[in-house]
Amino acid sequence: MLVLKRKAGESIIVNENIEIKIIEIEEGRIKIGIEAPKDVSILRKEVLDEAHMENKQASENKSIDKSMFIKLKKK
Prior knowledge:
Strand content: 25-35%
Number of strands: 3
Helix content: 25-40%
Radius of gyration: 21 Å
Shape: elongated
Strand order of the largest sheet: 1-2-3
Order of helices and strands: EEEHH
């Protein structure tokens, strides 16, 4: 892992086409801005981790609620 120190207003360039800029530092929180091509997906890690966990739980839950299945089948 590369660790860099930056001040408000400074930037980091990734792969020559992604700029991560430190917008503001206040009360121990950092506000960042990211400029990247539209085809680059930018996600918060905690959101991605939660989606992965929910997908894993869904794939492990193999029991089917028969009443719910019947309701869905009637639609």
